Amino acid sequence: MLLDALRAAGSTSRAELARTTGLSKPTVSTALAGLERAGLVRRTGEVSKGQGRGRAAVLYAADPAAGYVIGVDVGREWLRAAAADLDGTVVGRRDTPNTARTAGAMVRDAARLARAVAAEAGLDWSQVVHTVVGSPGVTDPGTHRVRYAVNLPGWGRSGLFDRLHAELGTGLDVLNDANLAALGEYALGAGQGSRLFAYLWVGTGLGAGVVADGRLFRGGHGAAGEIGYLPMFPLPQAAGPGPATGAPAPVGFSARGGPMEDAVSADAVVALARSMGMPEATTRTAKDVFAAARAGDATALGAVECEAARLAHAVAALAAVLDPELVVLGGGVGRNGDLLLAPLRTCLRELTPLRPRVVTSALGDDAVLLGAVARAAEAARERVFDTRHDA
Amino acid sequence: MLLDALRAAGSTSRAELARTTGLSKPTVSTALAGLERAGLVRRTGEVSKGQGRGRAAVLYAADPAAGYVIGVDVGREWLRAAAADLDGTVVGRRDTPNTARTAGAMVRDAARLARAVAAEAGLDWSQVVHTVVGSPGVTDPGTHRVRYAVNLPGWGRSGLFDRLHAELGTGLDVLNDANLAALGEYALGAGQGSRLFAYLWVGTGLGAGVVADGRLFRGGHGAAGEIGYLPMFPLPQAAGPGPATGAPAPVGFSARGGPMEDAVSADAVVALARSMGMPEATTRTAKDVFAAARAGDATALGAVECEAARLAHAVAALAAVLDPELVVLGGGVGRNGDLLLAPLRTCLRELTPLRPRVVTSALGDDAVLLGAVARAAEAARERVFDTRHDA
DNA sequence: TCCTTTTGTTAAGGATCCTAACTTGGTCCC
DNA sequence: GGGACCAAGTTAGGATCCTTAACAAAAGGA
Fold first, then answer.
1. Which of B140, B216, B226, B237 best tests the A interface by mutation, with the highest count of A CBs <10 A?
2. Is the CB of A54 under 7 A from strand D?
3. Nearest-CA distance A304 → chain B (Å)
């Protein structure tokens, strides 16, 4: 509790701590002495009280160097790793292309990258207390099994957690990447201070992470926020004589249904743009579409607006079920807030009275990695406190 | 804490309590003496130990009569009220038709009914510690304002909470009815013991309540679970040349979109059945449709199956965003599990890999009322403990 | 009748945190 | 520059809470 107060307030004198925590001065003094002996707290200097007239205060602060953590982002194309101290301050960072073709190789590469990052930052591996790995797929909190990781071959195999754990030898959590990105935005980005918000990742796939009261909302099987699986309508209709309908029948795959991921992810943006008449040759990726739209291409702008309207449906679904205060848009597609946000908000107004604030990610590609680091730091703080306090 | 242990275990001796709570025998004795003096705990007898050979144990139990609560269900057609003790055991119950046409009259009627139920149960009003009122609409935890209560004229007016509070003079919460139904199912019905489940209310409208770890999940503005507002697809499509599609265009209102409530609530069932050819004269309510289906009417069965398929979409949306372990179906339409569950489950298998268990409500029409009572009892237990413990 | 077993009470001790008074080290002002 | 003043930190003593250990009381069985 004292540590939490110290971390929140930074360098603080013991008298000040006594005031903010409600404890008495003697209690704070003895407890802090214990924490200092355990290496969790450090004198940070002695400040001659900028204003006051009394005796100079000795300042203490939680020592972020009491332990270090590693965050790893296992993406389809990149492996990213960062080392950070207990405050979550990044002290080392390294990305490599993900060339591994098997899950085993990926585990090895990830572990090697983690150790390399720690070494580069001048850390001995024994100082690393906890590691958090983010990857696509659903990780069941109970079984440690990764499921639905369609993009990573073999990554869903069981025993993977144990292998990673053995390679690293630190505390370990494996979590869904969208969930970690949400934590990252909560800790450092657009979601700071929000009581309930959702991070909507739109890129090569679609996913969401939900943070409620600062904690990840994971669902009954760890699959909360897997809105890529949200089935698209139309609803089943009666066969036989129906009521006359003047509305034009919609065309395209959405009329047939399918998971929402297929309708809004990067590939869908490309397909959409091409179907509206953009040339196949110069329209290879979603990035091309957004670039063309920014250059003023009317067709591309139309495709972007259509994508925005589809995303509005995703946001509306989140709003109807969760009622978040805020939705943060991220991922390769979602980051294009300059083009997407305005039409998305307009469309949302027509869809539902429940309209959360919608903004774009503040962390971009680093959201997952920083979320992993933030979560690892949190876990490490508890763990370091527990172990050091016994001794 | 001792009280919680007592309530969980029922009548218990002090020695037994010391064992289960981890406290020492003297501590339990003195604490229990204090609770007894405060009137929160009572000797329930002395059992000569059915089996053991030792001294007879004096049994204690939490006194449920230390306070009473009222639960009220303000529905469009009925006002229901129940009085219960701190255990949530109902000691009085009364329903009246809701004839009030203005919010003011409804407040008056509800308060009168509450007092009548208490009197009938032989309670003095001063014994009533807390009241919980369930009604349609979203109640913002911050402002106490009820919003979106489309079915109750004037109920959304501000100041309503304060008027009700003044009329009753007890602790008061006003909560969404679907949320309370979820709490009811958690406390007494199909959701018992579930870590995360959703109650899906399908009747004259559509709503859901979410209970996570025994606590209501209310969302950022108290609107979590308002899936009646879930917009229906189809997704917006590109104008211009689209990819060829062989799928037949769906017909009916769902092709035009709209909130999900319009597609699955009782009125929609009637419209659906009629559109499939059921006679208007004998198809007045959803109940008629289900009755006909049970009698073997093929058209009605078709309509029911179609409704089940639509509900499967609602369940799939819940699953994709929340990932509940369990979905409990309730309300005038939802209660027909014998007809709905099988096709719903079949359809769900085609829609999504995330398939929660789906069952029907165990409490039926009483879910909201019992949920209100359960929540009121919980609030009252804390309140009674706090106030009596000071004195 | 006495022994065993379990309940509940009494007595003593320790952990934790508090209040109150005091010491220390500093700024401010004459 | 020396004392007044002020806030930081320490020391001493005490209250509260809970624990362990031993004991007294009550019941069943030999």
1. B237
2. yes
3. 10
- B204 and B336 in a single domain? The answer is yes
Q: Work out if A50's Cβ lies within 7 angstroms of strand D.
A: no
Are the beta carbons of A309 and A351 closer than 8 angstroms? no
**Domain limits at A74?**
66-186+367-390
How do residues B306-346 score in pLDDT, each as one tens digit?
999 999 999 999 999 999 999 999 999 999 999 999 999 99
Q: What is the CATH number of the domain that holds A113?
A: 3.30.420.40
In tens, the pLDDT along A205-251 reads 999 999 999 999 999 999 999 999 998 755 455 443 333 333 333 32
**CA B390 to each of CA A22, B35, B43, B385: distance values in angstroms, whole numbers, following the listed order:** 21, 11, 22, 9
The size of chain B, in residues, is 391
Residue A118's Cβ-count burial label (10 Å; 0-12, 13-18, 19+) is buried
The answer to whether the C-beta of A56 is closer than 7 A to strand C is yes
Judge whether residue A36 contacts strand D, using its CB and a 7 Å cut-off: no
Q: Is residue A288 part of a domain?
A: yes
Q: What residues form DSSP beta bridges with B12?
A: B60
Residues B171 and B281 in one domain: no
**Which ranges of chain B have pLDDT less than 50?**
235, 237-256
DSSP E strands, chain A = 12-13, 41-47, 57-62, 68-74, 78-85, 90-97, 128-135, 138-139, 146-147, 171-176, 196-202, 206-212, 215-216, 326-330, 357-360
Q: Supply the DSSP string of B269-338, one letter for each residue.
A: HHHHHHHTT--TTT--SHHHHHHHHHTT-HHHHHHHHHHHHHHHHHHHHHHHHH--SEEEEEHHHHT-HH
Find the residue in B nearest to A199 (Cα).
B321
Asked if residue A317 and residue A203 are part of one domain, the reply reads yes
**Distance, Å, B65 CA → C8 C1':** 27
Nearest to B240 among A197, A256, A277 (CB): A277
Does the global pTM surpass 0.85? yes
Answer yes or no: are the C-beta atoms of B311 and B292 closer than 8 Å: no
Facing residue for A306 by CB, picked from B236, B241, B275 = B236
Q: Which strand (E) or helix (H) includes residue B83?
A: strand B78-85
The CATH number of residue A8's host domain is: 1.10.10.10
Closest nucleotide to the alpha carbon of B25, via C1':
C8
**Contact A213/A195 with Cβ under 8 angstroms?**
yes
Q: For A244-301, what is each residue's pLDDT tens digit? A: 333 333 323 334 467 889 889 999 999 999 989 999 999 999 999 999 999 999 999 9
**Minimum mean pLDDT among A52-56, A378-382, B373-377: which range?**
A52-56
Question: Residue B70 in contact with residue B376, Cβ under 8 Å?
Answer: yes
Answer yes or no: do B354 and A236 touch at CB < 8 A: no
Q: Is nucleic acid strand D under 7 Å from B76's C-beta?
A: no
